[in-house]
Amino acid sequence: MTSSPEFHTYPERLSDAERDRVLAVLREGAAQGKLSHDTFLRRMDLALAARRVEELKPLTADLDTESPWSRLLFGTVGRVSAFTQRLRRTWQAEKLPKLLLPQAGPYPLRIGRDPLNGLRLSHDTVSRLHAELTLRDGLWILRDLGSTNGTTVNGRRVTTTAVVRDGDMVGFGEMTFRLASD
What secondary structure, in 3-state letters, does 120-167 show? Predict the structure, then answer.
């Protein structure tokens, strides 16, 4: 006689968020001096090897003193802080000088300090050949050309290419602009 599959109970599966929470508690415990270096390393190994939630609980039992209210409070403060940073970035974007998107052509718009570039930016933090802007299939593509001080879109560094559009903040070294179509 076999049992019905609907009554099988499987151990609760460990999520990445739960593992990350335990790793954060262990790091904080080590930073506060509550764990020796060897204990910290041993518990980190056990946390990374754990497959079930029950295996994680003993690893932080002596460290996890944060109440649900304090977790809620710190989580709320973190979300408010992130919101204010986004608000500040948006406010700053409106004050930035505009960089008009060029008319579509057969060649990309080169950006940098070199006088032969389509857009010359005379600033020490801008590379000679810093970036290029291309219209491809109706999308504007910004490509970093291996610049020393980096190219950013909306505060994030571009390592290869990024799609940009009207209103985005683009930075070349320490020079930042707001893209505009007209």
Answer: ECCCCCCCCCCEEEEEECCEEEEEECCCCCCEEECCEEECCEEEECCC
Residue 28, φ and ψ in degrees, nearest 5: -65, -40
Residue 66 has pLDDT above 70, yes or no: no
pTM of the model: 0.52
Q: Is 5 inside any structural domain? A: no
Residues 102 and 173 placed together within one structural domain of the fold: yes
pLDDT tens-place string over residues 91-109: 776 678 888 888 888 889 9
What whole-number distance in Å separates Cα of residue 123 and Cα of residue 80? 35
> Would you state the structure tokens that stand for residue 109, as one six-digit string?
């718009």
CATH of the domain at 143: 2.60.200.20
> Could you tell me the pLDDT band of residue 173, with boundaries at 50, 70 and 90?
very high
In a domain, 103, yes or no: yes
Distance, in Å, from the CA atom of 115 to the CA atom of 23, rounded to the nearest integer, reads 51
Cα gap 176→182, rounded to integer Å: 18
